[in-house]
C-alpha cells in the first residue's frame, strides 16, 4: 500500500478488551487486605489446611459411667505409654448420634443398653498421637467384652476402668472405654469430635512490637492464618467484640487501650480451633497465666499471655470464646461471613 500511496497512513484501530473478572473472595483468602511493611505480615495466607504430618492420631472415648472417676487415669495411662495428648473435650451424645456412631453393634442384644449408657451424661473425648498409635491403642484397650477383657488382660484399659469404683457389682458386660484402632475409624472420629474450624483472633495495640513473634508462635502451634488485617478499632468495634464485659468497671480503661493504636485481626484455622486458641493464649491475667502452670512447665513455651502480656488489660491477645462469637466478629471486621459449619 505504501508503495502505491506513499503518503497514506492506515487508520488506527483500537480494540477495547473487557478486563477479566476478579474473584474478590478468592483474593481475600489469598492475600492480606492490608500490608504493614513487616515481611511476616505480608506473607500469603491460606484457605485450606495442609495434610497432617505428625505421628498418627487416635481418639479415645471415656463413656459417661467412667467420666467422673476414670478420665484422668486414662489420660495418665496414655501418657505413660508414649502418647502425647493433643486435645480433650466433653461431648454429650444425642440418641440419634449414639445410634449412628454405634450402628455396627445394632444386632447385639446389649445394643439398647449401650445407647442408654452413651446418652446418660457427658463422654470425655481424647485426641492423642504417637508412633504406631493404632496398634498400641488396640493392645491397651483389650476386649470389647468386660468379662473377656478382665480374663485376658486385667491391666488393659477396659478391664481397669469399666466397673463401679464404689464396689458395686457390675451387672452388664459393657466396657466404658472405646478407641479408634483403624485409620478409617480414626479419621472419622477426628472429623466428628475435632472438626476443622475457623476462629477470630486479635493481636492488641500493646503487643504491636511483638506481632511478628506472636505470628511465628501461632504457626508453630499448628494454626493456619486464613486472613489477617491491620485495623484501627472504633469504639463501636470494641463494644461489639467485648460485649461480654461492657458492664464491668474496667471497660472504660479497656476502651482506651483498644483504641490507642492499631490491632491485627486474624482468622485462624485448625482442628477444634476455638478451644485450641483459647488454650494457647491462656488466662486473661498474665500473672495468673504464669502461676497456673506447674513448676516443670515453662509458661512462655505454651501461653502467649504469659510471654507477651503486661497486665490484665494489656494482655497482648484476644480470642473468641465460641464459634458463634467467632463468626460474628469475622463478619464485622473482615466483612464476610464465616462458612457454615466452620
From TrEMBL:
Residues 196-341 form the Nucleoside diphosphate kinase-like domain. InterPro entries: NDK-like_dom, NDK-like_dom_sf. It holds the Pfam family NDK. GO terms for molecular function: ATP binding; kinase activity. It comes from Hymenolepis diminuta (Rat tapeworm). Transmembrane segments: none annotated. It comes from the Eukaryota. Belongs to the NDK family. This is Nucleoside diphosphate kinase-like domain-containing protein.
Amino acid at each position: 500500500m505504501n508503495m502505491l500511496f506513499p503518503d497514506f497512513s492506515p487508520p488506527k484501530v483500537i480494540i477495547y478488551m473487557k478486563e477479566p473478572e476478579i474473584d474478590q473472595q478468592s483474593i481475600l483468602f489469598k492475600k492480606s487486605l492490608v500490608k504493614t511493611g513487616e515481611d511476616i505480615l505480608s506473607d500469603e495466607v491460606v484457605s485450606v489446611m495442609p495434610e497432617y504430618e505428625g505421628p498418627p492420631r487416635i481418639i479415645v472415648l471415656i463413656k459417661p459411667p467412667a467420666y467422673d472417676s476414670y478420665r484422668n487415669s486414662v489420660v495418665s495411662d496414655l501418657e505413660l505409654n508414649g502418647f502425647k495428648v493433643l486435645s480433650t473435650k466433653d461431648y454429650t451424645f444425642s440418641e440419634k448420634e449414639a445410634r449412628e456412631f454405634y450402628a455396627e453393634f445394632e444386632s447385639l442384644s446389649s445394643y439398647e443398653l449401650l445407647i442408654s449408657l452413651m446418652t446418660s451424661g457427658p463422654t470425655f473425648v481424647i485426641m492423642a498421637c504417637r508412633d504406631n498409635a493404632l496398634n498400641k491403642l488396640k493392645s491397651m484397650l483389650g476386649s470389647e467384652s468386660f468379662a473377656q477383657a478382665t480374663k485376658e488382660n486385667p491391666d488393659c484399659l477396659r478391664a481397669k476402668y469399666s466397673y463401679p469404683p464404689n464396689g458395686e457389682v457390675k451387672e452388664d458386660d459393657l466396657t466404658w472405654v472405646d478407641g479408634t484402632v483403624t485409620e478409617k475409624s480414626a479419621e472419622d472420629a477426628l472429623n466428628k469430635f475435632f472438626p476443622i474450624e475457623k476462629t477470630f483472633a486479635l493481636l492488641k495495640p500493646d503487643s504491636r512490637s511483638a506481632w511478628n513473634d506472636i505470628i511465628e508462635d501461632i504457626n508453630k502451634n499448628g494454626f493456619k492464618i486464613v486472613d489477617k488485617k491491620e485495623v484501627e478499632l472504633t469504639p463501636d468495634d470494641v463494644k461489639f467484640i467485648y460485649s461480654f464485659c461492657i458492664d464491668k468497671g474496667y471497660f472504660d480503661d479497656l476502651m482506651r487501650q483498644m483504641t490507642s493504636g492499631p490491632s491485627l485481626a486474624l482468622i485462624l484455622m485448625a482442628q477444634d480451633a476455638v478451644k485450641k486458641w483459647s488454650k494457647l493464649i491462656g488466662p486473661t491475667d498474665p500473672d495468673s497465666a504464669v502461676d497456673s502452670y506447674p513448676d516443670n512447665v515453662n509458661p512462655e513455651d505454651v501461653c502467649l499471655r504469659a510471654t507477651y502480656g503486661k497486665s490484665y488489660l494489656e494482655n497482648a491477645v484476644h480470642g473468641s470464646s465460641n464459634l458463634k462469637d467467632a463468626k460474628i466478629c469475622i463478619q464485622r471486621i473482615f466483612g464476610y461471613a464465616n462458612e457454615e459449619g466452620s
